[in-house]
Structure formats: structure tokens, C-alpha cells
Amino acid sequence: QVQLVESGGGLVQAGGSLRLSCAASGRTFNVRAMGWFRQAPGKERELVAAIFWRVGRTYCADSVKGRFTISRDNAKNTVYLQMNSLKPEDTAVYYCVARSALEGPYDYWGQGTQVTVSS
Q: Per-residue pLDDT for 29 more than 90?
């Protein structure tokens, strides 16, 4: 099992920045990829960004490309989501995720952290 604990959410004005952190513990040697989903009220869950743990290759959704950056610290088993130029439509609960395979669904989910962007 892998446990994920997020931190860094909060309230910010439009145009501001936040950095989310996600610390992984447990059987982290199994982790092949980590990422961030978000879900806003009444909307479908969206994969915002992902990173392949060993090679560092990243993915960002078009909706956040150029504003959000995902990165990792292997030594700390931690993944970060730097969010700049935030917009009200970025308001959502952000979930850290991890999976033990290179492809397929994410096995592990954090408890979620609220990000609210005021206009």
C-alpha cells in the first residue's frame, strides 16, 4: 500500500499562485507515476498533471498548460504542483494520485485539498 498526504491548498485571488505538495509513504518503491486530479462541483474529475517517477517525463492538461508545473523530489518521495496565474475556474478539490503501473488507472488517492480562487 501507498499512502498519500496532500498539503498546500487554500484561498487565493485570481492571478495568484499556490503550491501543492504530496508526500508518499509505504511501498513507494512500487510507484511508477504520480499526478494530480481535480474535481469541481458539478463537473467531471479531470487529470491536471502527471509525472513518471523514474524518468521525470510530465503531462499537463491543456487547461493548465503554461500555468501549472508538476515536479518531484525522489529523495523525499514528494510530488509538487506549482500553480501560477490562477483563475476562478481552477477552484476545485485537488487529489494526489499514484499508480504502480506505467499505464492504467491510478491505484492510490489522497484525501484531497481544497483550492479556491476568488475573482
A: no
